[in-house]
Amino acid sequence: MSPSPAPDGRALAAAVGTRIRTLRTRAGVGLTALATDSGLGKGTLSELENGRRNPTLDTLFAIATALSIPLSDLLFGDDGVAEAHGESVAATLLGRWEDPDGVTEVYRLTIHERVQVSHPHSPGVREVLTVLTGTAEVGPVDAPVTVSAAGTHTFIAETDHVYRGIGGPASAVLTMRYPR
């Protein structure tokens, strides 16, 4: 269970919760159905929508995948909120672009030494990670790749995949491409 939002995190939790509820209702999806499709508890979703729980990166990806939307739909709004944190990864949305073929998102990441397993994204989602400083292990759980500074790794994120800093935190840029 995530801790209650800290005073400075309340605005983030409230903004993301409002977006979750708005996107869920716009899609015509009930709370119970979203809980089933995302693998999250109905109580967890209710707490998130009401701003009483800090959203984690894994939770947000589960919701985005269940609603078949890019992660940035949950992160980016009029209030400028554009960040999320997971077990190992802190992500800040730098930009989002749409074209007829899909949506492209670019994130600045800090990848810590703990292992983070990210669950599968929607079919066809491609991730391209370029390490700026440090070294990171990334890619599918069964075939991760070690990437050092100035190195890049591309993979389809349809299966469980890992992120882990090696020998300390790594900074990186992640580009995600969601096909239509």
From TrEMBL:
UniProt-listed PROSITE patterns: HTH_CROC1
GO MF assignments: DNA binding; DNA-binding transcription factor activity
Keywords for the protein's UniProt record, in alphabetical order: DNA-binding
Entry keyword annotation includes Aminoacyl-tRNA synthetase: no
CDD domains in the record: HTH_XRE (cd00093)
Domain HTH cro/C1-type: 20-74
One annotated Gene Ontology cellular component of this protein: cytosol
InterPro entries the UniProt entry points to: Cro/C1-type_HTH (IPR001387), Lambda_DNA-bd_dom_sf (IPR010982), RmlC-like_jellyroll (IPR014710), RmlC_Cupin_sf (IPR011051), TransReg_Diox_bact_type (IPR050807)
Pfam families attached to this UniProt entry: HTH_3
Name by which UniProt lists this protein: XRE family transcriptional regulator
Taxonomic classification: Bacteria, Bacillati, Actinomycetota, Actinomycetes, Pseudonocardiales
